[in-house]
Specification:
This protein is α+β, with helices and mostly antiparallel strands. It has a domain at 107-205: Guanine Nucleotide Dissociation Inhibitor, domain 1. The protein has helices at residues 2-12, 36-42, 73-80, 110-115, 121-136, 155-161, 166-176, 190-206, 220-231, 349-352, 354-360, 390-404, 410-421; strands at residues 18-20, 32-33, 61-62, 68-69, 89-91, 95-99, 102-105, 211-214, 235-237, 244-248, 251-257, 260-263, 267-269, 283-291, 304-308, 319-325, 336-343, 365-372, 377-379. Helix 1 (2-12) runs parallel beside helix 9 and helix 1 crosses helix 12 (390-404). The radius of gyration is 22 Å and the shape is globular. One of its GO terms (cellular component) is Golgi apparatus. It is found in: Cytoplasm; Golgi apparatus, trans-Golgi network; Membrane. It holds the Pfam family GDI. It is a peripheral membrane protein.
Length: 427
């Protein structure tokens, strides 16, 4: 996905782009697999899908499960590049958090906080005060700081200021600010407050949850940016084997494929194309589960996210579950796809993911999937365990800055778009 987005953006910026992919489909690791028979083959599952699974072509199963924050960076990229005209989205129905073996709706408004069974009465009042503080916080207006220095005061001290207990800290840091570990607690609080604001602002746009998901699966996203690249003169080649990355005098000068060399000045690729240049920094386990029922205690939601904070299961990193269904044109009628993921911490990753799988019982079919994380060659990161695209967008902006020598600027994207399409229409 990162490469597809960057090839679209670089084409808009007037760069001459050739996009080659060894696969027969767009998106690489972030593709959606269809039909269901292809998913069975990919994971070497015995036999064909049973008739109870419906028609194979009704399925579009994401390999890397993620949702889009409604007010997040990827939605801005989609809007500013007008890739939204190739896509339709649905709001995810709910965001839930795990506590003491049960799941609860994540409270993110004052009204929800007061009604939530996650907290006692006095805790609710303190949490409400905290949410009001975050909503009013403006990093450019010191009058909103209330004695907090956003660049120096740690988030741990902010929680102390509002006298919030451990359970509230858990769901605030992991289900609202979307941190994967507790390392953020001893960092300056500004980023955490802005993350919670992003969650609240995203929630305010549609009401049910802060997350969006494209109909027909995430594979639609790379295809959308591929179309953008083509509109601005980019060339796409699927099913194109990469034989060699040609380097002369320490600089990349081309890519060899089927005996021919395509010349270039800069190259973007995912780690699988340059395994000798990357270092493994961790591992993620993902399990794709097919269900015939919604997840228990989610009010029969057609889609949801569940976050299991690490403290609740004695781990260092969170466990994530995202669930979508036939309502999103990714599964047969009456079927649901739930994908559990987490960062591997032990030699027994199947056991680590078990708390998530227990929430999904009974499971009709599952396939374990383990993934490694990860000179003018710009290598993207592989996908982490999170169920949102904010970290992916940070990677895209980082590659852009290293290639172009300037920060990625959403307003600049808008101006470039207007140069081609004319001034924005008057509302």
């Amino acid at each position: 996905l990162q490469e597809c987005i960057l090839s679209g953006i670089m084409s808009v910026n007037g760069k001459k782009v050739l996009h080659m992919d060894r696969n027969s489909y767009y998106g690489g690791e972030s593709a959606s697999i269809t039909p269901l028979e292809d998913l069975y083959k990919r994971f070497n599952l015995p036999g064909a899908p049973p008739e109870s699974m419906g028609r194979g072509r009704d399925w579009n199963v994401d390999l890397i499960p993620k949702f889009l924050m409604a007010n997040g960076q990827l939605v801005k990229m989609l809007l500013y590049t007008e890739v939204t005209r190739y896509l339709d989205f649905k709001v995810i129905e709910g965001s839930f958090v795990y506590k003491g073996g049960k799941i609860y709706k994540v409270p993110s408004t004052e009204a929800e906080a007061l009604a939530s069974s996650l907290m006692g009465l006095f805790e609710k009042r303190r949490f409400r005060k905290f949410l009001v503080y975050v909503a009013n916080f403006d990093e450019n207006d010191s009058r909103t700081f209330e004695g907090v220095d956003p660049k120096k005061t740690t988030m741990r001290d902010v929680y102390k200021k509002f006298d919030l207990g451990q359970d509230v800290i858990d769901f605030t840091g992991h289900a609202l600010a979307l941190y994967r570990t507790d390392d953020y607690l001893d960092q300056p609080c500004q980023e955490t407050i802005n993350r919670i604001k992003l969650y609240s602002e995203s929630l305010a746009r549609y009401g049910k949850s802060p997350y969006l998901y494209p109909l027909y699966g995430l594979g639609e996203l790379p295809q959308g940016f591929a179309r953008l690249s083509a509109i601005y003169g980019g060339t796409y080649m699927l099913n194109k084997p990469i034989e060699e990355i040609v380097i002369e005098n320490g600089k990349v000068v081309g890519v060899k494929s089927e005996g021919e060399v395509a010349r270039c000045k800069q190259l973007i690729c995912d780690p699988s194309y340059v395994s000798d240049l990357v270092t493994k920094v961790g591992q993620v386990i993902r399990v794709i589960c097919i269900l015939s029922h919604p997840i228990k205690n989610t009010n029969d939601a057609n889609s949801c996210q569940i976050i299991i904070p690490q403290n609740q299961v004695n781990r260092k990193s969170d466990i994530y579950v995202c669930m979508i269904s036939s309502a999103h044109n990714v599964a047969a009628q009456g079927k649901y796809i739930a994908i559990a993921s987490t960062t591997v911490e032990t030699a027994d990753p199947e056991k680590e993911i078990k708390p998530a799988l227990d929430l999904l019982e009974p499971i009709e079919q599952n396939s374990g999937l383990q993934r490694c994380l990860c000179f003018q060659i710009f290598i993207s990161r592989t996908y982490d365990a999170t169920t949102h695209f904010e970290t992916t967008c940070d990677d895209i902006k980082d590659i852009y800055k290293r290639m172009m020598g300037s920060e990625f600027d959403f307003e600049e994207m808008k101006r470039k778009k207007n140069d081609i399409y004319g001034e924005e229409e008057q509302q």
